[in-house]
User: Fold this.
Amino acid sequence: MQKVIETLLIGLSTGSIYALMSIALVLVWRSTRVVNFAQAGQAMLSTYIGFEIASRSEIFWLGLVFAIAAGALVGAGVDYFFMRVLFKHATSGPAAVVAPVIATLGLLGLIRSIVGLTWGGEFRSIKAPASTDGFTVGDGTIPFSTLDVLIIATVSIILIALALLFQRTNLGLALRASAYAPEIAQLAGIRTARTRTIGWSIAGGVGGVAGMLVTSNNFLSPYSLDLLLVFGFIAAVIGGLESMAGSVIGALVLGIGLTFILNYVGTSLVFIGGFSVLILVLLIKPDGIMAKGKARRA
Amino acid sequence: MRKKIALFILLGWVLLIIGDRVDELRVYQGAQMAMYTIALASIVLLTGYSGQVSLGNGAMMAVGGYGAALTLNNLGSPIWFAFLMAVVCAALFGALLGTAAARLSGPYLAGTTLALAVGLPAIANQFKFLGGEPGLLFDVGFPPERFGEEFTQYKWFFWISTFIALIALFMTSNILSSRFGRTWRGIRGHSLAAELCGVHSSRMKILAFTVSSALAGLAGAVLAMNISLVAPGAYALSLSFALVTGAVLAGISSLPGVVFGAFILVAIPEIADALAGRLGDADKLNHYLPGLIVSILLILSVIYAPNGPGENLRKHLRKKPAR
Assistant:
């Protein structure tokens, strides 16, 4: 019984990090209709910058703030200097449909190589902001630690902030409007291009947090966030790619499920488990768990 | 048809003569180019013709490579049978995945295949019978003695891979100009219209996925032969990236273009080596410069020549007389 509870808790902490990544993907998907595979690269770049700051100042939270800022800046830059140019050029021919997806892949490779050339490929780590020793329950310790509590708390704060931003502010309304009906939003006086760039930068910042949190007691390398991207994508698909709430639920379910596989079956089946979930969701409920009988838009 | 056969035989003959004239490194690069040609053909068939994006061709190649290696090592079968099994394994895997993929469009398919490319090589790490990190040996043996003492191992690889590539290209070009190729293009152009014409679009998509996987599996086995082993590192995500880049450079729907794409893919490490030598021979440069060049090429070509440099050239040539 204790093992079940500790698996649940660890899964919650893992899932909350997936939630951030999947929100980053959903935000970009809603506004641009592109699954931004470069998100892993953007998050990695922000995490490297956050790591530099955190290891120099020895304050993790300062590093986190810088990672958010860097992520937001990179996200806005990618949209402004890259996606806009891309959409202006690639408009016809057999490659038009696939061009944006392939372009984000190229961007992922580009960021990876730049990070590799700058920081090198060796594994890096920093001192975790809180104890990674598990809590003591009864006469034993469980793997759930203060760090996990901090991770869940940080993610919750960010999720609440995002929910307030999207539901209570004009900017949030503009973001939602230009995601659902760009032309009508534009007619209503919203500068949709600028709103989209803001959306990209929010996604970038959220991705930066995900990168920092997932590596806070783990190693960072130019390849270490690929799996986070994959699980974030799976979570987003569970939520139907459109819904932020759905993707958060999807991420928590996925995190808990994968942790159960990890604790009860073994590492070898974690990825296979995640992939099977992806295939199953796509086959059974391709619109995601939040779908209300509406046709898939793409 | 007869003309085409003659053309391919002529091509093979020319390649054999070239193979005799150049040094060992070039022969090896020739073998790699043949491998890339097959792999790119599989992307052209899938993305350029049937309009499905697959970012996970490296994973399909891994399935083929491991299939071939397991066959060769455990059954002690002849080489040709190992290659055949590579095709069969990858085709089966592709058919399974294609069943799910046929219902997916754009972003879902891209994400699913990318997930596969990230995860599949890592899975090989976890299972003992797949050899883990160091992988499995894949040894096709020495060249037959009757070719003489001069005949090197790499030339043998070159012969085999060129032979396989020529056959694969020949068959692919036939498939693409057959009823299937036309139907795939129809589905890509307008799937609803194609369905109204009586095309069973999801069945045709699964077929495209299967054929494309089979080709990728074959390429995976050829890669395994060229480097004498199958290991997770050989089929890493960077391979899938490189293949997508090659296919875009080839002009995503042009089969002859794949030779050009393969040439670029073989040339990139060479260029990176030369550059790294100039810029100071650091470990970092060797490791990340090829990736940097690949990604820059990919981004530039997707923005400025999304349908391949060939199309830009054609447009350019067509415009001139009009002025």
Summary: Chain B has one domain: 2-236. Chain B touches chain A through 53 residues (CB under 8 Å).
